Amino acid sequence: MGTYVLKRIITIVPIFLIATLVTFGMINLSPVDPAEAYFATAHIQATDEMLEQKRHEFGLDQPLLIQYVNTIIKICQFDFGISYVTNKPVWDEISSRLPATIQLTIGSLLIAILVSVPLGFLAGIKKNSGMDHFSRFLSFIGASIPSFWLGYLFIFFFSVKLDLFPVEGTGTWKHLILPSVTLAFPLIALYTRLLRASVLENLQESYVLFARTRGFHEKMIMGKHVLRMAISPMITGLGMNIGNLLTGAIIVEAVFSWPGFGRYFIDAIFNRDVPVIQAYVLLAAGVFLISNLIVDLVQMYIDPRISRKGRQYQ
Amino acid sequence: MIAKLQYQLKSQKVIVISSFILFGLFMITLFAPWLAPNDPIAVNLAHKLQQPSWDYPLGTDHLGRCTFSRLLYGARISLGFAMLIFISALSIGLIIGIVAGYKGGWVDQLLMRFGDGLMAIPSLLLVIGFVGIWGAGLKQVILGLILVQWVYYARVIRGMVLSLKEQNYITAAKISGSSTWTIMKKHIIPNVIPSLAVMGTLEMGWAIMNLSSMSFLGLGVQPPTPEWGAMILEGKSYIRTNPALMLYPGLMIMIVVVTFNLLGEALSERYGIKRR
């Protein structure tokens, strides 16, 4: 098991290197010259000499390979360069906005799990019941509704009409409810669907029949065995969707004026603030990879067959 | 037996109804200039933020533009560009999938590992990253969406080509001296097209939703072009006084996406084609 964990951790390194290579390549291929972008955002009419000097400062006159290696070394030290707009280190800017985004994503993840686990489980064990129809309707709508529109619908009904929650901004727990429900909605749809399908599949397994033959209580079979087995694909889905949660957060933050990382990134796109864009893409890729790793390890803990399978293939 | 028949009829009904709605939408996109009562981008500040009337069936926005006409023209943008993304991604996926599946060996390895790499990154992150680095604009958004999309087609096509390659009639065609190109054109492409059409239906909803999300963020379609996501962005400031400005475009997006998803799911269930 230890070797499996180690191996799984090591696989992250090449993938992350590829991600850095892709962003590095795209930035070098992009029509924007960082030196020009720097002066443009500072509203300075730059001479050729100034541009030349800035390029030297950014290390753009060095060979590409050295630039790439330098970038990687800096990234490992959480040094993402200096923002063109604010002239402060990008990491400082990001870390001041990160808590708001983390709050939002964790809030919505909790809501998604709290709603979809009971819903998907009950829908699965009572197929074609009212609960099942409701869950299928919800998962269909959740997959088809644009989240920014859903956000405004929530604002319209709950803030403007009923005046229950604040329209935008941050501060109290009330501010957190609407944005996190909005962000959780597509996830609820997905997880409910996954869990329902997985419960239905598990009910066909022979261990259920065996447990029933032995006369175990239905409640115990469902709660102790089926749920535990069925939840495994949902955990995979959870890991695969942390990335969607991050991009979804960009939209939700824009709707609710949430002072997070995503909104900062959109502003950076408009300002052509290349270091911030690069930092965002790399960090998001990093979060995505690490969350996948955690999910794999959790899954291995729940279902030890996985690590044994891994050994078989060696 | 009866249950199965009932089930088939039910999925048939979904297919018929959703195709009918989509046909209507495509008619709207074709005939928008004749159906729309007003010019969608004509600014008329004297008539701003009006309630529905005979001249303006759904009222006007903050610049006095006819909401109904803008919705109709918006269908053109959303469906038109979604089609463009679908066709381009499909063509790229078709070529790469066939080459990878038919040639095999290191070509296959190279193309598919590259595809795996792309798929490992969340798709919307890739699009936003692409737009972030190359600048905001409709062209970048569309290129980004195509870049993410082709991989799925390529993988499906490659898998199909791999299994088709083993069929006897392909061997027969090879022995009788058909060129690789003839085999692909006559035997392989006609076989993969139906599944691609089903997949495409499911992906259309995805493309429309993401295109409008990008426009909502201000990264895609730029004003004054009428696009549903951009209309929501413009209408959001009037949520207290004129909520209709933000309600209608979102409703349109939802109807279109729901219809495409229903049709795609019914078709894939009927023909046993797996999604993603």
How does this model look, in words?
The complex is a heterodimer of chains A (314) and B (276). By secondary structure, chain A is mainly alpha-helical. Chain A is built from 15 helices and no strands. Chain A has helices at residues 2-10, 12-29, 34-41, 48-58, 64-76, 90-125, 130-144, 147-161, 173-203, 206-213, 218-240, 242-255, 261-271, 274-302, 305-312. In chain A, helix 3 crosses helix 4 and helix 9 (173-203) packs antiparallel against helix 12 (242-255). The longest helix of chain A is centred in the middle third of the chain and has 36 residues, at 90-125. Chain B is mainly α and 276 residues long. Chain B contains nine helices and no strands. The radius of gyration of chain B is 22 Å and the shape is elongated. The interface between A and B is large, with 47 and 39 residues.
Number of strands of chain A: 0
Overall radius of gyration of chain A:
24 Å
In this structure, how is the largest beta sheet of chain B organized? Answer: none
| Helix percent band of chain A | over 70%
Q: What is the element string of chain A, with H for helices and E for strands? A: HHHHHHHHHHHHHHH
Terminal Cα span of chain B: 30 Å
Shape of chain B: elongated
* Helical fraction of chain B: over 70%
Overall radius of gyration of chain B: 22 Å
The CA-CA distance between the termini of chain A, in Å, is: 13 Å
Number of separate helices of chain A: 15
| Portion in strands of chain A | under 5%
Low-confidence stretches of chain B: none
Number of helices of chain B: 9
Extract low-pLDDT stretches of chain A.
Answer: 310-314
Structural class of chain B: mainly alpha
Listing every helix as H and every strand as E from the N terminus to the C terminus, the arrangement of chain B reads HHHHHHHHH
User: How much strand content do the residues of chain B show?
Assistant: under 5%
Rounded mean pLDDT of chain A is 80
**Multimerization state:** heterodimer
Q: Largest chain interface and its two residue counts?
A: A-B, 47 and 39 residues
